[in-house]
Structure formats: C-alpha cells, structure tokens
Design a protein that fits this description.
Shape: globular
Number of helices: 2
Largest sheet: 3 strands, parallel
Number of strands: 3
Structural class: alpha/beta
Strand order of the largest sheet: 1-2-3
Distance between the termini: 32 Å
Radius of gyration: 11 Å
Strand content: 25-35%
Length: 65
C-alpha cells in the first residue's frame, strides 16, 4: 500500500503530522511525499525524516509557474 502526499512549503504541517502517518500499525506500506518546489525547510525536513523512517520516499519536483 502506498500513501501519496503532495506538499509545497508545508514543513510545519509535515513535522506535526508525518510521524504519526509513518508509524501506523500496518504490515507493509510506504509514504511518498512529493515536494513541489518548496522554498522553506520542507526539503531538509523530509531528508532528515528519511533517516528515521525507512518507509518514507521523497520526490523533489521543481516548481514551474
């Protein structure tokens, strides 16, 4: 099972909610966060969380207007 979360400049919301999502009691799942061109600390936060949570995948996409 995969959960996909799209985020742009959502560092605070991800920090508050992502650990609870990543530690759910489910036998096998991954959380994919698509970072859509964040210019806050979102990218750094996600890379830090990947160290702790092996079921976290991050996709960095540039922001195009």
């Amino acid at each position: 099972m995969s959960v996909v979360i799209c985020a742009r400049n959502e560092a605070d919301a991800l920090l508050a909610n992502l650990p609870a999502i990543l530690t759910q009691d489910h036998p096998k799942f991954e959380v994919i966060v698509v970072d859509h061109g964040s210019d806050d600390k979102t990218s750094f936060l996600l890379e830090d969380l990947k160290v702790t949570y092996t079921n976290l995948r991050v996709i960095h996409c540039p922001y195009i207007k």
